[in-house]
Amino acid sequence: FxxxxxxxxxxxxxxxxxxxxxxxxxxxxxxxxxxxxxxxLDGSGxxxxxxxxxxxxxxxxxxxxVTFEGLTAGGxxxxxxxxxxxxxxxxxxxxxxxxxxxxxxxxxxxxxxxxNTYVRGLLTKSGAGYFExxxxxxxxxxxxxxxxxxxxxxxCKTLGLNVNNPAAxxxxxxxxxxxxxxxxxxxLQLINNIILSDYRDWE
Length: 203
Fold this sequence. Notes:
Elements (H helix, E strand, L loop, with lengths): L9 E5 L19 H7 L5 E5 L2 E3 L3 E3 L4 E5 L7 E3 L3 E3 L5 E5 L2 E2 L2 E3 L4 E4 L4 E2 L2 E4 L5 E4 L2 E2 L3 E4 L3 E6 L2 E2 L1 E14 L6 E12 L12
Parallel strand pairs: 1-2, 2-5, 3-6, 4-7, 5-8, 6-9, 7-10, 8-11, 9-12, 10-13, 11-14, 13-16, 14-17, 15-18, 16-19, 17-19, 19-20
């Protein structure tokens, strides 16, 4: 799916290095902090563009129909070291080109991770919303699915996954570098995955 929403009603640019929160959040005058961004997310239909840099703030997003896009330049990454929570109650949020530390999906709305998205800590799905990741790097400290509904991973690097909800349905297709995929409760479908007995043996 495309990361950019070309018909977005509004656009916010954030630059942790060169931004100023009194700016108007345009590409030429970006704001600096995630806290300021959250004050601007009133309603739905936003496109949020994060410029390269490290953002240490924790962030909870409840706005609907939002795209978060990392503006990469020369291989530089957008690093989010604070915990991020997507708690939107409906609609969908799309993310691409961003490196998270800990990512939580707690809402009933959908969450889509596109290529060049990283989760370097814990990925948690505790809500009932649809989750889908494609060609993302999810090799953090693990993935925990405790919420109902669908969890789908296609072509991702996935170190470990634990499904523990009778109403959860998880599908993992063409995953790399996988050590453990377990369903304590719920359904887990595995298709064309490479599972290693111990990834440390391959270092």
